[in-house]
Amino acid sequence: MPSSLISVLARHGEDVTVPCLPVNSYELATLAEVFGRLPDPRRIRGRRYRLGSLLGLCLVAVLGGAKSLAQIARFAADATAEVHDQLGLARATPNASTLGRLLARLDGDTVDDAVGAWLARRATDPVDEPDRLTGLAVDGKTVRGSRTDGHAVHLLAAALHGSQTVIAQRQVAAKSNEIPAFAPLLEHLDLRGVVVTADAMHTQREHAHHIIAAGGHYLLVVKGNQKKLHKQIKRLPWNEIPLLGRTTTTGHGRREIRRLKVCTIAPGLRFPHAIQAIEIKRRRVNRATRKAQTKTVYAITSLTPEQADPARLAELVQDHWSVESLHHVRDVTYGEDASRIRTGTAPRLMATLRNLAIGLMRQAGWDNIAAAADHYRSRPDHATALLKITH
After folding, report:
1. What pLDDT digit, counting tens, does each position of 99-137 carry?
2. Dihedral, 367, 370, 371, 375 alpha carbons, nearest 10
3. Among 77, 202, 218, 289, which residue carries the largest CB count within 10 Å?
4. pLDDT for residue 307 is more than 90
5. CB within 8 A of 151, min separation 6: which ones?
6. Within 13 Å, how many C-alpha atoms sit on residue 366's CB side?
């Protein structure tokens, strides 16, 4: 019978704080089953390995810190017979070219939708605060090492605040930008009880209509790309509005102070469904040089004061910016920008595997992804156990 995430962690994560997860999901598919149900692009004749086994192998290797197809193949060659059995692999193991051809031919949207849905159903925690709105950050990242013909793969992702779990991803078309990919990214997500946060590129009227029509809320940054809206927000009587929040953080060699003001918007604002405007003044001080820099950021939201007080608005804004650390992990721990995988959908699928590995680690309670990778590299049986969890 499939085991739960909590029972898996109890066996190999005694020093890790386990998050509270839903316990009524025994009927849900395991991750191995999700892999096995994906459409296989290969011809039936000549298939030597099952699709689910190959994807499971790739994930287990990535959980252990594998950065390339060669490292995944090397993990497969060095793995014990027990790990091979757990993955459903024959004693003969696939080489890097076999894995590369498979990843290059898989449908990226189908894989991302299946994996994202599986992660989303396990990332929510309805126990502690059932009425709390969930933050969902929409942000893009370029896989720089995938550049061919002058174009690198650019991915737009939706990640849950806090856990940095990617539950949706779309590839941006070459010679385009993120804007047309926004609606397809959110198309299959249930946005009820969700606050979509995004940078100024996505402060678009069509995006706002799409989010509200899907039952969600938005919190969007306003900059010069919406000149008239930016002027309207900037001209609000901020000097007469009292300070409603002040937070101080330290890290990365700097100290940052954020001051927040909120203003309920009068009718006539040039943006649909906007109810509150936000002004955030950030003062950053370099702790080594003592040089200070001050920046003012404006945002708008469809949330009412009753749905989100100033403290919650400040938290949503900060959590959106903190999702950038997901990109940092992919580049530093997994060397994504240095990867030279370039064929077909393989660059995107490797990014999907990295997102999935990081999401599993975060849901399992790991704060340090490098330490988690070290753990799973030395104990691959713990990584294979994650393929069998249902909740």
Report:
1. 999 999 999 999 999 999 999 988 765 444 557 799 999
2. 120
3. 218
4. yes
5. 174, 175
6. 22
Single-letter amino acid code for the residue at 213:
A
| Under 8 Å between Cβ of 3 and 388 | yes
Contacts of 169-172 with CB under 8 Å at 24 or more apart are 169/108, 169/112, 169/116, 169/348, 169/351, 169/352, 169/355, 170/109, 170/112, 171/108, 171/345, 171/348, 172/140
Q: Which amino acid is at 175?
A: K
Name the 3-class secondary structure at 373: helix
Q: Count other Cβ atoms within 10 Å, centred on residue 272.
A: 13
* DSSP string computed for 207-232: HHHHHHHTT-EEEEEE-TTSHHHHHH
Q: How far is residue 135 from each of residues 62, 164, 363, measured CA to CA in Å?
A: 27, 10, 16
Q: Are 222 and 205 in contact (CB under 8 A)?
A: no
What pLDDT is attached to residue 3?
43
- Does the reported pTM lie above 0.85? yes
Strands (E), the chain: 134-148, 151-160, 166-172, 194-198, 217-222, 245-251, 254-264, 276-286, 292-301
How far is Cα 252 from Cα 245, in angstroms, rounded to an integer? 23
pLDDT in tens, 156-171: 999 999 888 999 999 9
Query: pLDDT above 90 covers what percent of the chain?
Result: 71
CA distance 95 to 72: 9
Tens of pLDDT, residues 174-204: 888 999 999 999 999 999 999 999 999 999 9
